[in-house]
UniProtKB/TrEMBL annotation:
Cofactors, names only: Zn(2+)
Protein name per Swiss-Prot or TrEMBL: Cytosolic carboxypeptidase 6
Coiled-coil residue windows: none
Pfam families noted in UniProt: Peptidase_M14
Recorded GO MF terms: metallocarboxypeptidase activity; zinc ion binding
Occurrences of domain Peptidase M14 (ranges): 1-232
Family: Belongs to the peptidase M14 family.
Gene3D superfamilies: Zn peptidases
InterPro entries registered for this protein in UniProt: Cytosolic_carboxypeptidase (IPR050821), Peptidase_M14 (IPR000834)
Active-site positions on this chain: 195
Organism: Aptenodytes patagonicus
GO BP, one annotated term: proteolysis
Assigned keywords, A-Z: Carboxypeptidase, Hydrolase, Protease
Length: 249
């Protein structure tokens, strides 16, 4: 049967969330987080159904397949750190970046599409927990609005740390997806790098480090997806299970 989702009707405006992962081949946890997002979004979970009805998710789960195949840690087949080449990707040397960037620009220029989120998933070799990097803007209100999603995620995911989340404009990060697209897209779009620790997260006191498992990474992915429900305040649309109707005499 045809979908009744409002965002899929011809001519309807679409709110798009664009997610990418594994631009650095050695950062395997990013694939598990991305898998958690995908599995949740295509599931029959009531939250997933509401999200599919109201948002369009575009996901590129592996931006560096050649590097992954070769077992590289950070570079592509050609020896490039792809996450420094978003500003001017070559269709020959950085084909995945070039293709994704073209698609993002196409969507950005389409008046019927609101590209609202770009999230690039990575893994971090020295920090604990999950956390985000965001951009710095002169506009204070835009800066504050950008903090909303990580704050909500922190409420949903016990392993996500808002205190480790930071907003920066280091020169060394200028060619990253988050930084470049943050400069390209307008102020209704939010661009983040989602980082997750290679090894553990902390619950409670500083000594209680819990080692990450594949399942824990996927759970973080599920919690990222769930957070869009809170962000867009779609909670009221969840179909609550009906209580048994009391029999009236």
């Amino acid at each position: 049967p045809l979908s009744t989702a409002a965002n899929l009707h011809p001519g309807a405006e679409q709110k798009v969330v664009f997610i990418t992962a594994r631009v650095h081949p050695g950062e395997t946890p990013s694939s598990f987080v991305c898998q958690g997002i995908i599995d949740f979004l295509v599931s029959q979970h009531p939250i997933a159904k509401v999200l599919r009805d109201h948002l369009v998710f575009k996901i590129a789960p592996m931006l560096n397949p050649d590097g992954v195949y070769l077992g590289n840690y950070r570079c592509s087949l050609m020896g490039f750190d792809l996450n420094r080449h978003w500003a001017n990707p070559s269709p020959w040397a950085h084909p995945t970046l070039h293709g994704v960037k073209q698609l993002i620009i196409e969507m950005y220029n389409n008046p019927k599409i609101n590209l609202e989120f770009y999230i690039d998933i990575h893994a971090h070799s020295t920090m604990m927990n999950g956390f985000m990097y965001g951009n710095i803007f002169e506009d204070e209100e835009r800066f504050q609005r950008q903090a909303v999603f990580p704050k909500l995620l922190c409420q949903n995911a016990e392993d996500f740390s808002y205190s480790s989340t930071s907003f920066n404009r280091d020169a060394v990060k200028a060619g990253t997806g988050r930084r470049f697209l943050g400069g390209l897209l307008n102020d209704t779009s939010y661009c983040y790098t989602l980082e997750v620790s290679f090894y553990s997260y902390i619950l409670g006191g500083p000594t209680s480090a819990v080692p990450y498992t594949e399942e824990a990474y996927m759970k973080l992915g599920r919690n990222v997806a769930r957070t869009f429900l809170d962000y867009y305040r779609l909670n009221t649309l969840l179909e609550r299970p009906l209580a048994p109707t009391p029999k009236t005499g």
